[in-house]
Structure formats: structure tokens, C-alpha cells
Design goal:
Order of helices and strands: EHEHEHEHEHH
Radius of gyration: 15 Å
Largest sheet: 5 strands, parallel
CATH superfamily: Response regulator
CATH architecture: 3-Layer(aba) Sandwich
Structural class: alpha/beta
Length: about 160
């Protein structure tokens, strides 16, 4: 059975550690993996796909050495392997132009501003995983502990109504 992976792309080790720490409660149903920059993320994402697992949510910083996070997310949106992956920009430095580009071209799912409050990353991960399960038509039962059932029910209701 394939696993759903939550990917964190962040070049600052302390911020990356904080994101991973917030996502730890979800490790009983998802795999959490990390990359320090866009190039490393591309290798990681390919490895995840090659082993038959799915990237459900990617949390990505914007300002990183080399390629920035928005460019990475835009490129991922163009690839069928990651078109349904929920994309979260996690940054304190993206300007309006970069944010608009992420929303319009990468179909950004969520924006978290650094520094974030409390368990915001975990809450967003739960919301985005819920959306991913519905969009990919994955049975939510194994993930019940970490999904927002209100979101799942609403999306399923819309999906069923659209099929009629």
C-alpha cells in the first residue's frame, strides 16, 4: 500500500526542525520527509514517486539558496505526479508578486507567514491532507485521527452532487 508523504522544504535548520516537530503527531499515518533546498526537494520528490508513494502536502519556504520556493511549486504544478499535491508556502519574505504567482501558477493551497502561531502548521497539514484525500478519492478511514471530517464531508457532498 502506498504511503502519503508530507514534505518540508526549508533551508534554515531551526525552522525545518520546528515544522517537523509540529508534524510529528501525523507520523502514525503519514511519512514526514525534509529537504534543505529546491534541488534536494526535486530528488526527494522523485524518490517518493519512484517508490510508489504519494506527496500529499508540501510545505515550502520561498527564499532559499538556488531556486526559490515559488518557482519549485510552479514547476511541480506542471507535472502530473504532483498536480494534486497540496502546496503550502511557508515564508516571511515572499512579496506580493511572488505570492500572486504561487496562487495563480502553482495553485497554492495555503500561505503561512513566519513566524507562525502555535500549532498552525499542524492545523494546515490536517486541512490540506483532508482535501488531498478527497481529491485523490482515498479512503479517509485510516487517516481519521488526522483529518478534518467537516472538510471531507463537505467536499464529498459537493463531489457527489456534481456527479448527478
Amino acid at each position: 500500500m502506498s504511503k502519503i508523504v508530507l514534505v518540508c522544504v526549508e533551508d534554515e535548520a531551526d525552522v525545518l526542525d520546528a515544522v517537523i516537530r509540529e508534524l510529528e503527531p501525523m507520523e502514525d499515518v503519514c511519512v514526514v520527509e525534509a529537504a534543505a533546498d529546491a534541488a534536494e526537494a526535486r530528488v526527494l520528490l522523485k524518490q517518493i514517486a519512484d517508490r510508489g508513494d504519494e506527496t500529499g502536502v508540501i510545505f515550502c519556504d520561498h527564499i532559499m539558496p538556488g531556486e526559490n520556493g515559488v518557482e519549485l511549486l510552479v514547476d511541480l504544478q506542471k507535472d502530473d505526479r504532483w498536480v494534486f499535491t497540496r502546496k503550502v508556502l511557508l515564508t516571511g519574505q515572499a512579496g506580493l508578486e511572488a505570492t500572486v504567482k504561487a496562487v495563480n501558477q502553482a495553485e497554492l493551497s495555503h500561505y503561512i507567514s513566519k513566524p507562525w502561531d502555535g500549532d498552525e502548521v499542524l492545523k494546515v497539514a490536517i486541512q490540506e491532507l483532508s482535501h488531498y484525500l478527497v481529491v485523490k478519492d482515498i479512503n479517509p478511514l485510516p487517516y481519521l485521527k488526522h483529518v478534518d471530517m467537516d472538510i471531507v464531508e463537505e467536499l464529498m457532498r459537493k463531489h457527489l452532487t456534481a456527479d448527478r
